[in-house]
Design brief:
This protein has 452 residues and is mostly beta strands. 10% of the residues lie in helices and 38% in strands. Helix 2 packs across helix 5.
């Protein structure tokens, strides 16, 4: 009875957020203004895998389709729209278990509906690629490192570019300039013919770049979302590329045409890492929501949760041969898991970690980066306190410990022969360490700096 009375009142009393809205005001952007509100407050319960009330709010099209209670949007009429009804009032019906939307957020939604609930372009596709490579007067932090399989090149993200160094740190080979002001991750394909990178511009677009290694040519730039992409990975057959995103969604794109072929919205926070299985049919992801997940690429549906929720996960690396991943996070422990589905989904009380292999000794600081050696026999991790440890994969025995005072470590990679490890982080330097004793071999700048 109370809900019936409340709905009647809403119909009779003008909405304070809608009464002053006019259709000729500056157009509200769905992708830049409305969708971020829905993602932050609503999509956890209204997405393809969990569409409460039959309502999916992940896209403009699904929002307009409505749910079990009919249309959520009456384009041009905010007062007559079910969405406005459930988010406003002294005791709003939605979000169900979260904080009510602010008056400013409700105002934006009402203005957008009044203006026709239009879907604008999802991203700014205009090129931001500079005509000349960046000039550096100081060293930027190093967020990712990748050695080419032939042992010749080391790829390092810079500002609007990927910088290719000689693998031994003796100099810069080439500078690959692109749109993204900041690249978060870079990787070579297994055969070394492609370089893939992910990044973007915060609140504007996420980008995946695919480069021809030999020709140093950009084959494709894929832009999507309105926030940066993280944790790029490429399928074993070089046909697909996967990324995580700050919008909580994991995506897979076709390299040939740039089309998005999979998106999974089962994570509840930023997705930082991705890894394909050997057959390219499944994808493992990790997120700040503490979850590692196994996803079916063909359908975009969750197969299994891989781990028990413990700590926010920051990094993920895949074993070079086996379908095994290593995760690292704020707790300071590496954990190994098989990339295999269980026989059926979990029931209450089931073992959530049947795929668990082992964990390694505790670090005194959050783990920011991890990497396997080319043969998978060793694994290295770097922490927020600047410490680096190298372990045997098979039993977790520590091989070496590097305690350097250079600031947080954000990126690690083994050389192609597995004899050295490159480390980069907050101070912008790259350091090569001997992989069995941890002794530093060389130190060099991540980018060419103009010093005056």
């Amino acid at each position: 009875m109370r809900r019936f009375f409340y709905n009647i009142v809403l119909l009779l009393v003008p909405c304070s957020y809608c009464s002053s809205v006019t259709a000729d005001e500056e157009q509200v952007s769905f992708h830049r203004e409305i969708l971020p509100i829905l993602r932050a407050n609503c999509i956890a319960c209204h997405k393809p895998s969990k569409s409460k009330g039959g309502l999916d709010l992940t896209t403009h099209g699904s929002l307009l389709q409505g749910g079990n209670d009919g249309l959520a949007i009456n384009a041009g009429n905010a007062l007559g729209s079910r969405l406005r009804e459930v988010i406003s009032g002294e005791e709003p019906e939605m979000p169900k278990d979260g904080e009510p939307l602010t008056p400013q957020e409700i105002d934006l939604i009402c203005r957008w509906i009044t203006q026709g609930a239009i879907a604008d372009a999802p991203v700014n596709t205009g090129s931001k690629r500079p005509t000349e490579p960046s000039t550096y007067r100081s060293l930027p932090a190093v967020h990712s490192l990748s050695f080419s399989p032939d042992g010749i090149l080391l790829a390092v993200p810079g500002r609007h570019e990927i910088i290719l160094h000689h693998a031994d740190g003796s100099g810069v080979v080439s500078r690959l300039t692109g749109d993204s002001p900041r690249l978060e991750s870079v990787a070579f394909s297994q055969d070394g013919t492609l370089i893939v990178a992910s990044g973007g511009a915060v609140s504007e677009f996420g980008e995946v770049q695919i480069w021809d290694t030999a020709k140093r040519e950009l084959l494709r730039s894929i832009k999507a979302s309105n926030d940066a992409f993280y944790g790029v990975s490429i399928s074993p057959d070089n046909r697909q590329v996967a990324v995580g995103c700050a919008d909580k969604i994991a995506r897979v794109f076709n390299i040939a045409d740039g089309l998005e072929i999979m998106r999974c919205d089962n994570h509840l926070d930023w997705v930082f890492g991705s890894a394909f299985t050997n057959d390219g049919l499944r994808l493992a992801t990790v997120s700040r929501d503490k979850a590692a997940k196994l996803i079916d690429i063909a359908s975009g549906l969750l197969i299994d949760d891989i781990n028990q929720s413990r700590d926010p996960l920051i990094c993920l690396t895949r074993h070079p041969i086996d379908n095994v991943i290593a995760t690292g996070g704020t707790e300071g422990k590496i954990r190994l898991f098989k990339m295999e589905p269980r026989n059926g989904r979990l029931a209450e009380g089931d073992n959530k970690e049947e795929s668990f292999i082992r964990e390694f000794e505790h670090m005194a600081s959050p783990i920011q980066a991890i990497a396997f050696s080319p043969d998978g026999a060793a694994i290295v991790c770097g922490a927020l306190n600047g410490e680096i440890r190298i372990f045997k994969t098979e039993n977790g025995q520590r091989i070496a410990q590097i305690q350097a005072n250079h600031g947080p470590i954000f990126a690690l990679a083994f050389t192609a022969d597995g004899k050295q490890i490159a480390a980069g982080g907050y101070d912008g330097h790259i350091r090569l360490y001997e992989a069995t004793r941890g002794e530093m071999v060389k130190e060099f700048d991540s980018v060419p700096v103009r010093r005056e």
